[in-house]
Amino acid sequence: MKTNGIKLFACLGIILMLFSIIPAGAVAAVEDDSNAEDAKASMRNRVETQDQVRLNATESATENAPRVQAAIQTRVEMVQKVKVARENLQNSRSEYVTAKEDLQKAKAGNAGDPEELFGSTRAYMIQTIDYMISHLENVKENVESSDGELAEETSGLIDGYVEQLEQERANVEAAETRKELSDAAKSIREIWNDANKDASFSAGKAANNKIYTFLAKSEALSLRLQNEIQRLKDEGKDADELEEMLGEYNDLLKQAKQNQERTRATFQNRNAGENSIKEANEYLREAGTDIKEANSILNNIVKELKTYRRGVVTLDGTGILTAEGNGTAVLSGDLILNISATNAKLVIKDLAGDAEVVFGTDAEYKKVDSEADDNSAMVYHEFNGTVDISGSRLTVMIRGEDVTFTAEGTGNAVLSGIGMYRVEKDGVSHASAQWAVVITEPTEEPTEEPTETEDGTQE
């Protein structure tokens, strides 16, 4: 009995060692995609959040609202699928590690019991297959959410490999002899070799495409920042530190672009070898690192620019913002607001579901029900009078004449039009400035892009 147990483990051990750890290529590809995503996270989240808030606030009552809401909902569903796939991968890995430990215990303590060792080996093989499938599905969801051109091809490839692995899992579950397990292990190895290469290729190419798109947008942003810095210098303001930071930002973007371009040839060649893919993935990692560092500098640039910008106010919970003027004010955060306006449009987005809205006895308005699925947006046209609004996650847009308001809490405000604002803390004025003046340029046809103000913010 003892001899049979040792022979069983020796026979299967050689085969199992070939795939006992998921090959690094697949992990590298997944991590490269994650690195590229993390590198853009802070800026992308900020831009996407601002875009969504403003699109919801200004278009929810127009004919474009259903299309905008559908696009947002589609993106939310994609993000949720990626999240679920990542969680499944983490769970599969945990179960795989447990099965591996159980097999090691069986080898150490029950080598003389072939049935016990056989059962532990089969359980370990099943969990290894599940771990492989989770890796492939994680790559698939990441590619589908980030690269429409690759999505269909990648989905078909991975679905085919998953189907083959599931068939081998059924074979392992039904196995009753060492040879049946051995044959299944060889088939799994062959399937995984091909699946790993294709998954690594697809994930790497998607990450490369994503970085390429991001860098193109970053270069356009750099030009806008340069124009903003030049405007400050023309006004006689000291912008040397901003100019130095922008230089560092551009240098990092240049390095990231060089690393990205080094990968392009590899991912244009479908027959690229494993070593070439690994080398390309390393370049992607370096590009991701460059982008992370660039975004860190970008955050500092944005913070510095805020000290110069008109119409942008940050509330830290210790003061009161008071403003009056004609134009548009967008406020978001954990806020308590008192608003008065004439012939205005008022949009209230209640993200936490705890908003309180109390109109004054003099208020007049026409309400438009929100077309959002969660009914969290309230739209009022031809608003005249006063209203008190409070909530922990608010976004409020007021656009009209004779707009006056006070705001307390934490969050931010963007004011565009003609007007003044001030921030007081303990009865002492800490800031006083004008609203940003809106720049309007004639266009040949209507545009859906937000109107730009002179300081580069968007309305």
Q: Which range does the strand content fall in?
A: 15-25%
Rg is 29 Å
Total number of beta strands: 5
Q: Structural class of the helices, strands and pairings?
A: alpha+beta
Sheet bearing the most strands, described?
5 strands, antiparallel
Tell me what you see in this structure:
With 459 residues, the protein is α+β, with helices and mostly antiparallel strands. It folds into two domains: 1-308; 312-434, no CATH class. It has helices spanning 2-16, 24-59, 65-109, 114-146, 148-174, 178-234, 240-268, 274-306, and strands spanning 312-350, 356-359, 364-368, 377-425, 428-434. Strands 1, 2, 3, 4 and 5 form a five-stranded antiparallel beta sheet that branches. Helix 2 (24-59) packs across helix 4 (114-146), helix 3 packs antiparallel against helix 4 (114-146) and helix 6 (178-234) runs antiparallel to helix 7. The longest helix has 57 residues, at 178-234. The radius of gyration is 29 Å and the shape is elongated.
In short:
The chain has 459 residues and is of the alpha+beta class. It has helices at residues 2-16, 24-59, 65-109, 114-146, 148-174, 178-234, 240-268, 274-306, and strands at residues 312-350, 356-359, 364-368, 377-425, 428-434.
